[in-house]
Amino acid sequence: MTTRPRWVAFDAVGTLLVPEPSVPVAYHAAGQRHGSRLDVGAVAEGFARVYRQRTNPKLLDRLQTSEDNERIWWQRVVREVFPDVADPLALHADLHDHFARPDAWRLCDDAAATIQSLQMSGIQVALASNFDARLHAIGAGHPGLKSIEVRVVSSEVGWRKPAREFYTALALACRARLEEILMVGDDRDCDFDGAKAAGLSALLIDRRATSPSEDCLTSLIELVDRIA
Ligand SMILES: [Mg+2]
Predict the structure, then answer these.
(1) pTM (2 decimals)?
(2) Structural domains of the chain sorted by starting position, each given as residue range(s) with its CATH number in brackets
């Protein structure tokens, strides 16, 4: 049994929202419009290779960020995924706009009902995401997420999860003590270990149940029984 928190903070991507179409499919389609001849498999592989650099534990000391920093990072991703595109900045601008649209994201099936149940039981809900300012429009554009008024976004905080500074900013935004917040997310380093190290409680969401444990949920719905 998890102690009842005052707040539950959800990670966004992979926890409440997934890109639909998938990132490789969206990248591939945009790449084609800008003259790329890569197939979707090569795009997927290239994206995974570049993205791994961001989650490389050796680089996790580079957690300071900003809107500019995030844009530069995604421009680099596009450049590296599409070496055959003449104007990668134009392609990046297209992809940036695509992923800013609420309809580029699907709400996970277990998200809306869980958020509603938590709120009805008097628990407050926040979004806590490594993302940029686009997350506000995405959050406001999904009926199931609209009721979440506190959105803490790394580019605005200046620090990415798992940095302690990110979690301090989350507590400040919630006007809560760190230990009054339960963080729920799909990334062990960022959402679980980082949150615990900062003094929050934390649960992982692992819908494929790859390594079941007491700290893992296989559906967000389980959260309601555990704490609400
Ligand atoms: Mg995530």
Answers:
(1) 0.95
(2) 7-16+108-227 (3.40.50.1000), 21-101 (1.10.150.720)
